[in-house]
Amino acid sequence: MLDAFASGFLVFAYLATAAFQLALVFGAPLGEYAFGGNHVGVLPSFYRGLSAVSSLALVAISGHYAAQLGWFDPILGTFGNSVVNWVLFGFAAVQALANNFTKSQKEKRLWSGPTVAMALAAFLVAF
Predict the structure, then answer these.
(1) In 3D, which of 51, 55, 50 has the Cα closest to residue 14?
(2) CA pair distance 104, 2, nearest whole angstrom
(3) Which residue, 12, 34, 96, 98, could crosslink 119 as a Cys pair with Cβ 3.0–4.6 Å?
């Protein structure tokens, strides 16, 4: 039951993060909240491209957790699913560390809590 709640939270959290990345792609002036906070306002084209790729990856991760809830047919078997869950926990842990040790205070204030919660939820799902 706890793993289902954690999966549901991760579906929402990764979709919300993907929406933020899409906003950056379409020119939202939120550059100081992403990529180390080095770009105030609209991101340069290179970083907007990275945001587009990131958004697609985040939607795919959200889909993985939605499959855990039974919303989609899982592509992987039990072993493959377990491996991917641990890889995604590692990704979430690195993401949490990066966002908690960034020099940008605005980025840190926005992303510290959610990324730590996402890492904890990913651990619960993987465990």
Answers:
(1) 55
(2) 33
(3) 96
The C-alpha atoms of residue 9 and residue 18 are separated, in whole angstroms, by: 14
Q: What percent of the chain has pLDDT over 70?
A: 100
Q: How far is CA 127 from the centre of its chain?
A: 19
User: What's the chain's length in residues?
Assistant: 127
* CA dist 122 → 18, 22, 75 (Å): 17, 23, 19
Task: Name the pTM for this structure.
Answer: 0.89
Decide: 86 and 119 in contact? Cβ < 8 Å. no
Q: What tokens appear for 76 in the block?
A: 């992987």
One-character DSSP codes across 8-34: HHHHHHHHHHHHHHHHHHTT-S-GGGS
Alpha-carbon distance of 122 to 92, in angstroms, equals: 7
Q: What tokens appear for 111 in the block?
A: 């992303």
- pLDDT tens-digit series, residues 29-75: 998 998 888 888 999 999 999 999 999 999 999 999 999 898 988 88
